[in-house]
């Protein structure tokens, strides 16, 4: 063995972890702190050397969109500064913007507004010809089986869809070419079909489905029943194939049951065949849902099942479009699947394992792989608390029997990394500049804040031959994954357009009431429903007083007439649980019940003017 190979293999922490790797994944992380102090002391030097300091007034080169984990939101960061720029509420309640409180947001959330939680995992940006087009970002909610769409011009959620017939949407990816027609979403947990009380104690009758959501209408286009379960997924660069990992081919109902098999599989879906089957009527519907449901279990012409080791997790497409790479989790290996062999597989000309062209051994707990666009892959090793850099072509040569070292470097990260994401890596344009690693534990990296610790997002420079860790960033509530694109690939609005569909229903209500939103400050009564229309322009509301009766349902509609960028107003009705944001040229509305007589002040909650504190008004509630 060469000295270089020995050095690479000895870089790791595995000698700390060998005795604990089998007995506990999280416990193994407690050994990860050795040597952390020395690395911390050199962090500022690394930052200066790699030029990540963004001076006051300078702008970042990349946008990063982070899932908000079980906070249920999406977070926007600048890269490489790692500065948090914005939080976009999606499945959560946010009193600052009024998300989940305003009528506009409740309309978007629909029936699922009754859920007060969300669990976001995988944010992904729409594409045209395999390149980010900056139009939409999509995000899943594992907790309540939903998929949401965010408009990137206004950075607001505009559609939320609940997926029928399944539970726990986890893996989510987008069709890359010719454009994002579909959002592909994996339902992770098998349930009885139908799930109406039948087959409760009969797991053999449990199934889950691969789901396709129309990216424009956000309606579920079709569903495909599979064997086993579904975890992570990704699409190819032809538009035909999508692949998903399965870690529970056993359909086990307990931890031990899910670990019995030495191999699970990657299931590959033929999108063109599925579309043809839907068109030909080769499907059924389940229960009250009208969504076409197709059978993709073993033996179906719609799917193929490729055995891979053991409890695989991440599934990532290389930016050159040649490979799906499945990460082993309970195997130290990744399985490299050649996409150009998949047509032969679907023609039954080759065996499923013939599509596997490499299976490099990387370390303990490989979870996710990302790429630099130069032929190298970067895989997180959860148990080893490392990122392994390896060369795909060399791994294929080694699989074919050549004596070649495919490992390039292993870098310690802190600690227990899950997802990683390199700049532009899920598009054709992967540029190999920055790598973000989202670590599940932070332990000794930050000031202690009690028993609940933050997670640790780390920034790594991958522009040279060696990876260099240059930044730690504490973050809250397990942001699960992120995606990076160049700043010039987005064009966010600076002020709202007055005809924006986001508040179209509110505009229609005003028109029915004979109100011109840009001018009128009036109260409209309809029985015990009162609609209060007012404008705002710093530092005053158009109405500073209105009167209602006890028990009235009050809807306050405010139109911000300010046209100055960044001049946002807020509205808070004291002691009524009502608050909302009204950005320049936006219309927002909120509804509440005036249940107690008396005087109730309202005020602007977003600082807007030197006289901001004086921007107030009164609601006078008369006794019933």
UniProtKB/TrEMBL annotation:
Region described as COX2-like: spans on this chain: 528-624
Name used for this protein in its record: Nitrous-oxide reductase
Top-level taxonomic group: Bacteria
Binding site for Cu cation Z4: 480
Boundaries of every Cytochrome oxidase subunit II copper A binding domain copy: 525-624
Ligand binding (Cu cation Z2): 121, 170
EC number assigned by the record: 1.7.2.4
PTM: Predicted to be exported by the Tat system. The position of the signal peptide cleavage has not been experimentally proven.
Source organism: Halomonas cerina
Chief location bin: periplasm
Annotated localization: Periplasm
Gene Ontology biological-process entries: denitrification pathway
NCBIfam families with a match to the protein in the record: nitrous_NosZ_RR
Binding site for Cu cation Z3: 122, 419
This protein's pathway: Nitrogen metabolism; nitrate reduction (denitrification); dinitrogen from nitrate: step 4/4
